[in-house]
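Support request from a user on the community tier.

User writes: "When I paste my C-alpha cells into the form, the page sometimes reloads and wipes my input. The last time it worked, I copied everything first. Here is what I submitted, just in case something in the input itself triggers the reload:"
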C-alpha cells in the first residue's frame, strides 16, 4: 500500500500538515506561557526617597501611588506621614476590596454602595487586621442575592493574595461585614 504514489503523497502532505500544526501549537504554547508568567508573577517597583534622618520623612512612589511616609512618633520619628503598618493594612484592604468588587460583579449583584474600613491591631502577642465591609444592595435585591452578598464577604478574603501572604506570616485577618439594602 505504501508503494501507491497517491497514498505516499497523501501521507507526505499529512506529515507536513501535522508538523506545521505542531510548530504552530508550540508557538501558541510559548505565547500562553509568557502571558501566564506576566499575569501570575507580580512584580512591583517601589521607590523611596528619605530626607532628614529619624525625625524626617520620606516619599514612597509606585506606578500609581505617591505618598508621604514617616517613622511613627512612638519610635522617635516625626510621625508626619504614613507608617509601615498603615501601608501594610492599606495593601491588605485594597486587595480584599478588589477581590470583593470582582466577586460582586461576577454575580451581578445590585450593589448601590460599597465601603471597606480596615484596621490593624497590634498587641503583645499578635498583629491582626480586621476588615469591615459594608455592602448596600438596591431595594429590589432578592433573598438569593442577599445570601450571595453575605457569602462573598468571606470568599473575598480567601481570594486575596496579599491577605493570604500575610496569613502565612502569622497575621490574623478577620472579616466583620454588614449587608443592608435601600428601601
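"...and here is what came back when it finally went through:"
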Amino acid at each position: 500500500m505504501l508503494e501507491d504514489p497517491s497514498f505516499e503523497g497523501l501521507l507526505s502532505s499529512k506529515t507536513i500538515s501535522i508538523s506545521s500544526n505542531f510548530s504552530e501549537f508550540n508557538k501558541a504554547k510559548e505565547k500562553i506561557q509568557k502571558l501566564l508568567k506576566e499575569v501570575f508573577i507580580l512584580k512591583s517597583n517601589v521607590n523611596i526617597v528619605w530626607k532628614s534622618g529619624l525625625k524626617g520623612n520620606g516619599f514612597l512612589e509606585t506606578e500609581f501611588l505617591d505618598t508621604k511616609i514617616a517613622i511613627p512618633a512612638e519610635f522617635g520619628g516625626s510621625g508626619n506621614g504614613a507608617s509601615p503598618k498603615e501601608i501594610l493594612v492599606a495593601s491588605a484592604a485594597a486587595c480584599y476590596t478588589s477581590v470583593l468588587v470582582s466577586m460582586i460583579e461576577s454575580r451581578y449583584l445590585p450593589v448601590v454602595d460599597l465601603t471597606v474600613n480596615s484596621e490593624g491591631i497590634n498587641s503583645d502577642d499578635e498583629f491582626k487586621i480586621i476588615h469591615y465591609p459594608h455592602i448596600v444592595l438596591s431595594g429590589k435585591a432578592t433573598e438569593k442575592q442577599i445570601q450571595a452578598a453575605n457569602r462573598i464577604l468571606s470568599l473575598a478574603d480567601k481570594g486575596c493574595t496579599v491577605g493570604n501572604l500575610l496569613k502565612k506570616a502569622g497575621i490574623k485577618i478577620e472579616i466583620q461585614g454588614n449587608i443592608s439594602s435601600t428601601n
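Agent notes: The reload is a front-end session timeout and is unrelated to the input. The radius of gyration is 27 Å. The chain has three domains: 1-41, 42-82, 83-181. Escalated to web team.
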